[in-house]
Amino acid sequence: MPRGFRYAVWQCCLLVCAGNACAADLADCSFVDGWEQQGATRHYTPGDLSDYIDGNAESYIAYGFVQMQGVTCKSRVTDTLVIDVSEMVDADAAYGILKGYLDPGQPLAKIGMGGQILPRRGSFAKGNYYVEITADYDDQTSEVADFLTVIEKQIDGRSTVPDALSWFPPEKLASVRLVPERPLGLRVLKRAYVAQYDHGKAFVALEATPEGATATMAQLRRLYPGAQPVQLANEAFHVRERYLGGTCFFRKGRYVGGYTNMRDGPTAVSAAALLAARMP
What we know:
By secondary structure, the chain is α+β, with helices and mostly antiparallel strands.
């Protein structure tokens, strides 16, 4: 996401907060009895986030980070919790950053669009927000859960997983993730959900408007002048690409989807048709 766009999004969100509360309202030690704030409130934007999470800031920014509000809370028995509430550009971005930081070896929690509550760490995403709490002792699962539960109730936003996850055919599906930049290694594509199968890879790139998706398809056609047009969705073509193998690109509404790493173009078209049929 270009830095100028990130700044514009941040400025806009300072004026209009998503849901019932702004990030500043969601990081509050008084939500749970017996806790009080220690030190000053933290606030970070894309321009200075690396001052706080050096090494991971670019990952947040790539997904569509707007701003973070954080507090350190201390209980009467000296336990400490660090609460960070990140406002993202939209619910897809919030879910994407959550998935990137979940522990795949631990169970998930039914909170918001999804989350995890562990002895020293808890997180969830709901609406445009990604919330993370870290603790200083190994036995603070209940305290972490208490804060997450209260904060989740303050957010009015999407509490189910993004619709795009249901669009990918489930047969032989290995994984789905949101790739925030250069999905498939193609700069032309914006962020996209990418699904890995036993054979091949499916994707759905998220555009803001049908006109934006049409422009992306035009750029893709220029990349592959020898591609063959096919009758699929609003427009489509297939090509045998050097690195992606048999590939099909199609546009349906404001989305650009397709299939790659197939034996040849026609095989990719057949697989892409199944994907397109599941999309709105």
